[in-house]
Design brief:
- It is a single chain.
- The protein is mainly α.
- The chain has a single domain, classed as Sodium/glucose cotransporter.
- The protein has 23 helices and two strands.
- Helix 1 runs antiparallel to helix 9.
- The longest helix is centred in the last third of the chain and has 39 residues.
- The C terminus is likely disordered.
Length: 548
Amino acid sequence: MSNQMMGYVVVFGTFAIFMAIAYKTRATEADDFYVAGRRIHPMWNGMAIGADWMSAASFISMAGAVAALGYDGLAYIMGWTGGYVLLTLVLAPYLRKFGKFTASDFVGDRYESHAARVVSVVCAITISLTYCIAQVAGAGIIMSRLMGFSLYTAIAIAIVLVVASTVMGGMKSITWTQCAQYIVLIIGYLVPVTALSIQIYGHPFPQIAYGDLLYKIVAKERELGITAFYIEPFTKMSAADMWVLTLVLMIGTAGLPHIMMRYFTVPTVRDARYSSGWALIAIAALYITAPAYAAFQKYQVLYNVVGSQISALPEWVSAWAKTGLVTIKDANGDGILQLAELVMHRDIVVLSMPEVAQLPYIASALVAAGGLAAAISTADGLLMVIAAAISHDLYYRIFNPQASEKMRVFLGKSLIGVFAIVAGIIASQQIGFIVQIVAWAFSLAASSFFPVIVMGVFVKRTNKYGCITGMALGLAVTIFYIITVKFYGWAGIAGIKDQGAGLWGMLVNFACLIIIPRFTPPPSERIMRLVDHCRYPVKLTDEFDSFH
């Protein structure tokens, strides 16, 4: 069997399994379509959250960011993992106790305002579409580089796979396919770097090898005359920029609509907390390995690539150079590759590892399957948010409360296809690194949902006027900052780059939520009693149900 055919069998074979699971668990009722009937065990929900969370950015781009940025790249790992602690302590149990379908449901009901619901829907769509663009782009990179498709063909195939796995059964089928996708993606991620650890250190624990790798990397950098060492902090980012990015990623994690939506699928408030615990266990397997991935790649480049004859470079370097993701330029004409003459696209660190470790092609196919599972499982959840925001939060809750379940589900499935195509069109324009686009989505979440939900849970006096103004201005400020810094060359405030834009939108949002309610009417007595009740993360009770 040829390598290309083997790749097709592994990748499309795994997706055939995903489709079979989706068909077996398909749903037609609204409760199953939007929240999986609220019957998911926290362990399975935690695994699904892990797959939902570990997107193309985590699988493909995070290790590349650490390899390119060194110490400063750890902002992504600290921010994205720390965000789950924040989510578990501050939001998850209270959202589950509120007992709705979506984050926009919470906003609309807590603030007793259709206008607030509409603004939150716009925010949810903007965040989810931005995040989805990165997933489709990641799937395109994987299939175009490892399976030989053109980028446009790869993106089109990714869209078909996403839509097929999502529309079949909504949240119910997504939950169970994401559990299967987690198994595929974590195996695909761990196998190559574990094999390289065995080759170099004789043991299958790349995480344990990390410390010695850093020592060897710094020793080689000294030998090459490099002064900005890999382990030295604040060489690629300022201290302010790094810590702002970490903060925004943490807060954005706690404000992501597609993650919040998963907490509505478990039976009780206690299960919502346990789901986060299981999710952290699932996520840890990848996140504690990503720095080792980056270090192994850095080690291989410094010891086996730099200083080699350009005509005799390792086969993996030559192969990736043909794709345009590795650039080699013999600037001084001596035929020896210097570090400054090598440019590697950061998104290939994980994808190239099977070739670096000289593994059989099936390992590359497994990485491709894992990367696609990561990208598509996240895209499933994001498109589900968009579908729920429009079909449930807008159409059913505002425009047509008498709409049948069948009509709501049909509209939701139709919207999934439309927005998947939109995401694919934008992704084909290659507007940024995957991890960069994902960071934009986190900034948008930090500046819109997080403040209004936190204040809505903990401050009774917060009202619809502050919510509407805060969400709208927070989102607008963040979008303006991203566009002007990324595309128009503005240096930003205090040197904070576009990925930390959410800080400013979040501050504006909180300011509106604190100041405006002082000069406007308070919420109703009913809402104040509901907020009091929701602060205590205990089991659902008849008393709470009476509020609805």
